[in-house]
Amino acid sequence: MNRLSPVALAIMLTLTTMSTGSIEFEDIQKPEDSSNGFAVDGNDTLNRTNTFPFDILFDDYHEYYEVVSELQKFANDYPHIVEFYYLTDIIPAGQTWQGNEIVGVKISDNVANEPDFYDDPDEETFFIVGNHHAREWMTVVTPLYFVYFLTHFYGMEPTDNDGDGLINEDMIDGVDNDGDGEQGGRVDEYGRALFDGIDNDGDGIIDEGIDEDPSEARVTHLINNREIWIVPILNPDGYMYDREDPSRFW
């Protein structure tokens, strides 16, 4: 059976099993907060409901079991492109040093018809992880946000996401892909987006080198032609250990 980058994955999982101390998971009460995580000012005219409606879910840190539940929900809601995995199943111990499990999802087309941990030789593999070390709480929501982004826009028709009356679909490549006269963000010689301080779509918001209108077609093409593995919490032992007591530096 084909495996996903077996050497690299085994090394990462082995490193993750090394830990110290003991844990007793305690429920952390999430404070009531109506904020959606974005400052409101006169320049923020973007209708986030049409662009990234899941932004409101990212105004606080996520607990380990919340992440597990979210990933399982993605697999249930999008079974044609999302497969949920207990990655610790492929190591001899079957769990981390502290007895936890490392979970993740594979996002690609046709996952429902593939063997477990299948590595398609015809598709490149992306591996995105968060919380490789302890106290990296912010890195957990970054790969989780990517899961929301991919599943939300997959298969969607070209949409006027930013409400400016145009379907720009400009991508970060410095090329006017849709012929509307706007260059899809300024890039350097390596194709990386640069901040140009220009309001590319004329809606009054500085776009920071990109358009606010993501390309649904490009998201769909990415999923149909790549294998994307996302592991928001690579080190669950350390994540839960220092979340219980912020004075712990491990």
Automatic annotation (TrEMBL):
Needed cofactors: Zn(2+)
GO cellular component, as recorded: extracellular space
Any GO MF annotation of the entry: zinc ion binding
Database matches in InterPro entries: Peptidase_M14
Segments traversing the membrane: none
Keyword list, A-Z: Hydrolase, Metalloprotease, Protease, Zinc
UniProt GO BP: proteolysis
Domain Peptidase M14: residue ranges: 60-250
Key word Ribosomal protein present: no
One family name in Pfam for this protein: Peptidase_M14
Family note: Belongs to the peptidase M14 family.
Name of this protein: Peptidase M14 domain-containing protein
Species assigned in the record: marine metagenome
